[in-house]
Amino acid sequence: MFKIIEIVIIALAGAAAMGFFIWYFVNEIRGRKACASCAVKNKNY
Question: Is residue 44 part of a domain?
Fold first, then answer.
């Protein structure tokens, strides 16, 4: 029983880490696009 619980916890932790990595990667791509528009705003400023 304990081994099954450990496997479930590891699987959930792995899925959470993978989801966070994908979310961070998507935000990184969006952040670069946002930074490009911010750079234009800073030049105008």
Answer: yes
